[in-house]
Amino acid sequence: MHTSLNSFERRVLGSLLEKSMAQPDYYPMTEKAIVAACNQKQNRDPVMELDEDAVWETLESLREKGLVTMLLPGAGARSKKFKHEVEQHYGWQKRERAVMTELLLRGPQTAGELRSRCSRFVPFDDIAAITIVLDCLSDAETPMVRALPREPGRSAIRHAHLLYADDDDEAPSETTASAPTAPVIAPPSQQPAPQLASDETIDQLQDEIADLRARVEALESQFNQLMS
């Protein structure tokens, strides 16, 4: 079942998914905890500033769509808590939830970036392992992910979720904005320069660079949590 989500709904659902895997001791979550998670500066793109009213309205909207359940306070408790229902609604397993969490919280990313950032939820041995999950999400009866057109000047391909609303300004374009370039023809007296690296090699190198960059971000995030 496909569901279009606005930017607030994506942030709230992504935050619930994130905490359910990264901090299960603090899940399900109170409304105030969800507000704090939505407004985190780390692991978020874009950074948001949602107030309690906006989060409450968003939770109500997600409840109507069957994506969130509200739990009444137990004995000795005073606050309602909330949990996501994506396993029942979409059938996502843990690795699929990890990938969709990062895409919901950060937007389009390469396989290398996803591999490193998802490691805080579940380990992926290599790029092939994350690619298998992306393919499963892309090839599902109701596709949830698609590969974006290659960006000008970049070899690595980014992947985006398909939960954007039809009129969402943040939804990635299906086409590149770059204009076609005319082929370069060498003079008859010159031979073309030898190809230094295949496209596959460049893709691999760029994914490895993205992987390293994401690992540094993850370490920085863990350090900041330890210091806070």
What order do the helices and strands come in, and which of them pair?
Blueprint lengths: L6 H16 L6 E2 H8 L13 H13 L3 E4 L9 E4 L1 H5 L3 H13 L2 E2 H8 L8 H12 L6 E3 L10 E4 L37 H29 L1
Antiparallel strand pairs: 1-3, 2-3, 4-6, 5-6
Would you kindly provide a written description of the structure presented here, covering whatever features stand out?
The protein has 228 residues and is mainly alpha-helical. The chain has a single domain (7-173, 203-223), classed as Winged helix-like DNA-binding domain superfamily/Winged helix DNA-binding domain (Arc Repressor Mutant, subunit A, Orthogonal Bundle), CATH 1.10.10.10. The chain is 46% helix and 8% strand. Strands 1-3-2 form a three-stranded antiparallel β-sheet. The two termini are 40 Å apart.
Taking the alpha carbons of the first and last residues, their distance comes to 40 Å
CATH class: Mainly Alpha
Shape: globular
Please, how many domains?
1
Give the uncertain stretches in residue-range form. 176-196
Widest sheet: strand ordering: 1-3-2
Provide the structure class.
mainly alpha
Radius of gyration computed on alpha carbons: 20 Å
Largest sheet: 3 strands, antiparallel
Please name the fourth-level CATH homologous superfamily: Winged helix-like DNA-binding domain superfamily/Winged helix DNA-binding domain
